[in-house]
Amino acid sequence: MIPDSFFYQIFESLPRQGPGCSGATRKAWSFLPPIHKNAAVLDIGCGSGTQTRELASLTPGTIVAVDNHQPFLDTLVEKAGRDGTGWRIKTICASMDALPFEKGRFDLIWSEGAIFIIGFENGLKTWKPFLKKGGFMVVSDADWFEHNPPQELLQWWEKEGYVPASEDEMKERVNRAGLRLIATYRLPEAGWWDNYYVPMLARIAELKKTRGADPTCAAILDSLEEEAEMYRKYKRYYGYTFFVMQKV
Ligand SMILES: C[S@@+](CC[C@H](N)C(=O)[O-])C[C@H]1O[C@@H](n2cnc3c(N)ncnc32)[C@H](O)[C@@H]1O
Predict the structure, then answer these.
(1) Total count of domains within the chain
(2) Is the Cβ atom of 18 under 6 angstroms away from ligand 1?
(3) What is the pLDDT along the chain (248 residues), one digit of tens a residue?
């Protein structure tokens, strides 16, 4: 178990808290039909909100951004204020499995790299009631890109406590959640490095100097390095896929 405070010390200063990039946010958005200009959007597990701010550039509507770590939300508020979009973004510190909204409130629910926290299918089923009829949901999550992943990779995912499913299985889960799949889109490799592993590895090198002597901290930093190394070695076998869906 990662001690929360140290974990946040690593991630608070990073541009993103999970794999992703603005180009991919825009690409996933491009699969949606035109959304009306007063659309109500919900971004779940927004972190410090890089994709929230990208969404604000794609819609003139309002965005509610939810995360359970207030300092991430504070960063989002500060940056969106500088962008001039802060007045359209409302942040709420809440848990994604107990969202404080009335049913049928949102035209679009967005979530990048966060649904794994409550499980893909469970997340879809839990969030769907907050969509209007005909509303859209876009989420990204890890899945296998190839069958028969190497044993070392499989064991690493098992150790992490989360084993990806195939894209076909993910599509089945979308079906079971009663959503219509419009499109899938794989996050390009740059989305893993530029805003995520590259700054994370730099942050790890920095923290090793000050906290590396503490065995608990050192183990955490090593395990994050191992995660990046797994991706470097085995990126053709897995990745993140965006699922663009509609509540019909
Ligand atoms: C992997 S990060 C993704 C952040 C952001 N979407 C991105 O792509 O950079 C997952 C986020 O979910 C948040 N989170 C973790 N558990 C949560 C929960 N139960 N409810 C709401 N947010 C949660 C974390 O604080 C973190 O910001």
Answers:
(1) 1
(2) yes
(3) 345 789 899 999 999 999 999 999 999 999 999 988 899 999 999 999 999 999 999 999 999 999 999 999 999 999 999 999 999 999 999 999 999 999 999 999 999 999 999 999 999 999 999 999 999 999 999 999 999 999 999 999 999 998 899 999 999 999 999 999 999 999 999 999 999 999 999 999 999 999 999 999 999 999 999 999 999 999 999 999 999 999 99
* pTM, entire model: 0.96
Q: State the Cα angle at 119 between 142 and 79, rounded to 5°.
A: 70
CATH no. for residue 41? 3.40.50.150
Expressed in angstroms, the distance from the first to the final Cα of the chain is 40
Does residue 117 line the site of ligand 1, with CB under 6 A?
yes
Q: How far from chain centre, in Å, is Cα 45?
A: 7
**3-class DSSP state for residue 236?**
coil
Q: Is the CB of 49 inside a 6 Å radius of any atom of ligand 1?
A: no
Residue 219 forms part of a structural domain: no
- For residue 241, the enclosing domain spans 19-188+237-247
